[in-house]
Amino acid sequence: QVQLVESGGGLVQPGGSLRLSCAASGIIFSDYRMGWYRQAPGKERELVAYIVSGGLTMYVDFVKGRFTISRDNAKNTVYLQMNSLKPEDTAVYYCNGRRSPTDYGYWGQGTQVTVSS
Question: Less Cβ around it within 10 Å: N or C end of the chain?
């Protein structure tokens, strides 16, 4: 049974930082492209960043320079370090693992990130 379990969300003030983690089980983690997506209230789910097995990363423009995605294949875990958080970063953040770009893949249950003073 495949499971992706996110953790690390919470309430943070603008300008603060959070580190999200996603622990995967039931898959050969190193075979998967791992990504972080987010969904704000009333909006569609959107890609934030992804990382392939070899470590190549991609970020959407609105997080470049602020967020860093990384993975530890030995721990079957992908991380998202989020710095300089803004209120518009408030969303539920989801972890996704897929073997190819066109796969639907597997999804975690999401973790809430709220940026507010």
Answer: N
